[in-house]
Amino acid sequence: MITWAAMAALLIFSACAYVIGRRRLVAAVAAGAQPHSRPGYHGAYLTLWAAVPALLLLLVHIGFSSRIEAALLQAEAPAVVRTMDAQQQRVFFDDAISLSQGQTRSETTYDAAVQAALDAKAAEARRLDQGVRLTVLVLAVVLAAGGFLIALRRLAPDFRARNRVEGWTAALFIACSVVAVLTTAGIVASLAFESWRFFQMVSPIDFLFGTDWDPQIAMRADQYASKGAFGAVPLFVGTFLVMLVAMVVAAPIGLFAAIYLAEYAGGWTRAVVKPLLEVLAGVPTVVYGFFAALTVGPLFRAGFNAIGAQLIGGPLNELGVYLGQVQNQMALVAGAVMGIMLIPFVCSLSDDILNAVPQSLRDGSLAMGATKSETVKKVVLPAALPGVMGALLLAVSRAVGETMIVTMAAGLQARMTLNPLDSVTTVTVQIVTLLTGDQEFDSAKTLSAFGLGLTLFAVTLALNIVALRIVQKYREQYD
Amino acid sequence: MPSSRDEAATRETAAIRIDAPPVQTTPLAGAKLSARDVNVFYGDKQALFDISLDMPERAVTSLIGPSGCGKSTFLRCINRMNDTIAGCRVTGRIDLDGEDVNDKGLDPVLLRARVGMVFQKPNPFPKSIFENVAYGPRIHGISSSKTELEGIVETSLKRAGLWNEVSERLDQPGTGLSGGQQQRLVIARAIAVNPEVILMDEPCSALDPIATAKIEELIDELRTQYCIVIVTHSMAQAARVSQKTAFFHLGKLVEAGPTDEIFTNPRDTRTQDYITGRFG
Predict the structure, then answer these.
(1) How do the domains of chain B map onto residue ranges?
(2) Same-domain check for residues A420 and A325
(3) Which residues contact A146 (CB under 8 A, 6 or more apart)?
């Protein structure tokens, strides 16, 4: 609370700094000085020095001080506490901090000696917290005032405030991009670290080439099936199958729709259809998911069952029996709905690529006496082909990583099959099932999700890199 | 034979003297193309006003005038390329051998096979040199066998003066040629379907003087067989290559006549001002 108040005070102070910096220069100019920069830059320079260092300190305080305090607190554990096991010690210190902040503690019952130690620790925590807070506040004031004074001393009419502010601005942009890059690196690192733990339990060879997926591990050692099977090939096959169905749906429809939009549609149609497509691309995938599970699945099942009923007793009796037993959850449904989801994506990207083909090529072909479709087929599409391939690869990478639709429509059973009427499971579905619910984060079962995640990440990354390379190369051709 | 550089240089100096003696004085043959009262509108804006112009067979007609005067628009009316521009409307008649190109019953696709076009910026297709030239014959089914097609490609490239430079690399992309070579490639592409008329929309404006000289030489040769209409910004070029010149200004045809007359004895003061470089 005090920290937030300090921040507000800081902002007001820096606003004042702006006004002061500005006024000083305006006054100097009135007195006949030749300034280098305009008054606004002098104000901004003063503001930055007054606000930024102190603000950074306060942010660090908000982010890290509770952890530092906790570490300091635990450095000297009372004797009674030292006899406890690690779990109990953790609860004890958590309770001490909760009490120091006036919150309710856990419902653990402590005997009198421990209770006394707890109260002592809570009091210590309170003192520690206040001490840290006070230090930070004093430091912040010093930083703000110091920064302000340093900047104020530099401000002369010929000071290059404009260039300095430019430097600060660049620093801000760099800092933001560093955050983005570091976050990505952090995510990848944690994925890699957890996967490494997993691959110590299960050999990567078994994981990547094993054909048996059954990650159920017994909760207790004496239970049956205490060892799981972690061959991920059935998951890769399932993912591939669903992706294939999706692309069979999305690639032609999306591409042909893009050709219509880019080559045939008039201005009015384009103006209506393009935004509509983008809306379709913005529909949350969970909506497609229940569309698949509740509408398309039963529809397909009813259709196949009806065909099966017709075939039973005929020369294709066995096929009829099979079709009669088809269930709601099948690769075909998940793939088809995912394909529908990808249509706007493919269409929008391909449309951009087709539009990048220079009009002069179309004119050249038309002037040769080619019809519109001949022009599209023989000149525009070949010219756009690499870019379109890139767009399709991006769609593949999305299909591989798509989760919600397959979770709701594909099924959970890992099966080695390329039959689209079978229920299959995908890498993403397995990650979801492995990590939802109460889980221990040190069993091979849960850790296998990270192994799958890493594999998925590697595959989609490779696809994206290849696809973007292709798209870029194609763009350069005409720019 | 003098090098093309020298030749280009002499042509350049000859042409800058606008009062130079006329290049040729043979009377112009009958009109292959004849436009009557052509008006063009882009939406509400009128771009051409009542253009009437005859373009003779086996001769080069050049359309000159300042930027935005409508000469390219007029050129694109002849093979109905304006159809591809939304909101563009054309009225009036343009007769090709007495047949109106704007006739509802006339298929613009077939018209364009008879009226070839070369654009300002060379636009070879992203295909091999061979496939570029074979494009027209293929879509129009002109050749019945591979040998015949190869023959057409070779003849067209030879007539475009490109054969010696590319005969060894017909399978390489047409986009890899130099600008001047690309422009001759698209000319070869245009003549491969045996058109009757060739329209050229500032064919040399993206080329250096040497490449320009080659194209001009080529135009001079092609005129023995085709009716050529060329839009150009260079009055020197108009004087060098054309037998008839039409001067456009602000969407109107100011004056048209044999090139030597237009350049030596213009009737209209605007023409005089333009060709002497007083505006434009």
Answers:
(1) 4-125+194-275
(2) yes
(3) A53
Give, for all 280 residues of chain B, the pLDDT tens digit. Answer: 444 444 444 444 444 444 444 444 444 557 889 999 999 999 899 999 999 999 999 999 999 999 889 999 999 999 999 888 888 999 999 999 988 998 888 899 999 999 999 999 999 998 899 999 999 999 998 888 999 999 999 999 998 889 999 999 999 988 889 989 999 999 999 999 999 999 999 999 888 898 899 899 999 999 999 999 999 988 889 999 999 999 999 999 999 999 999 999 999 999 998 888 876 5
Q: Which residues of A touch B (CB under 8 A)?
A: 266-267, 358, 360-371, 374, 378-379, 382-383, 477
Q: In terms of domains, do A275 and A419 share one?
A: yes
A144 and A279 inside one domain: no
Check if the beta carbon of residue B125 is closer than 8 Å to that of residue A370: no
- Tokens of residue A389, six digits: 């391939």
Partner A contacted by B128 (CB < 8 A)? no
Q: What is the CATH number of domain B4-125+194-275?
A: 3.40.50.300
Closest approach of A369 to chain B, Cα-based (Å):
5
Q: Look at chain A and report how many structural domains it folds into.
A: 2
A378, B139: Cβ pair inside 8 Å? Answer: yes
- Answer whether B26 touches A (CB < 8 Å): no
Q: Which domain holds residue A50?
A: 2-159
**Domain identity same for A303 and A443:** yes
**Token duo for residue B157:** 């490239």
Q: Rounded to a whole number, what is the distance in Å from the CA of A377 to chain B's nearest CA?
A: 11
C-alpha to C-alpha distances, B181 to B174, B185, B204, B210, B278, nearest whole angstrom: 9, 6, 11, 11, 34
Place of tokens 């005409």: A478
Phi-psi region of A110 (alpha: psi -120 to 50; beta: other; left: phi over 0): beta
Q: Which of A443, A437, A451, A428 is nearest to A227 (CA)?
A: A443
Residue numbers in A near B86 (CB within 8 A): 266-267
